[in-house]
Specification:
single chain, mainly alpha, globular
Length: about 250
Amino acid sequence: PVVALALLVFLISNLTRAYRWRLLFLKERIPVIRLFLIENMGQGLNNLLPVRIASEATQFTLLTLRDRVSRGTALATLGMTRVMDIWANSLLLAGSLLFVPGAGQFARYAAGSLLFSLLLLILVRFVSWGSRGLPILRRLPLLSTFAASVAELEKRKDRLVASLAASVAVWVILGLSGWIVARSMGINLSLAQVVLVILATIFFATSIPSLPGAVGTFEAAMVYVMGIFDVDKNLAFPYALVMHAL
């Protein structure tokens, strides 16, 4: 029953992620469930590869060929979802330094993430500006439509803020799923600590080449991060197996 509840919460997290993506479509009316399926198809293919390069390509192909979304819009929304994830991660990492005991070891990662977020913000502004004045974009139709879509999104601050809030909610709900499992296994971590554990684990496990599905890499990363919070390896390893299965 505990694993079933954790899985249900995990799926709610994925639905929230799809809703976050839906907020970035300004004209197209694509159902959240459809985006949920597209996103998980891409992630599923990623699990078959040692290097995670299939997700965005799969999602882009499905959006443009099956759902008839313009290539510029597809690229813009896919790119902006990644930007939102990085901004959300930066906010959560920065917040953890203030409110999560033992999170001080993540200070340099938080600083790097905040710097990268600022660079992405500058890039978004540059692309938005370029849509109105760079001659090279007129010669490259895909880049031109991409820049125009980014410019339209950049004007809709309400959608961007809502998408960022949903991105933060994705990680918090995902952390709640992990917290439910942790409590059932007698692991005394707070919800904020579990969010940080999952965030750091996924970052490390997906940043380096590994076996398909990040088998072994995921578990090693999670055991290491949980060790920062003084969780015994004899508890951390089976917990990592359950979370990876979820």
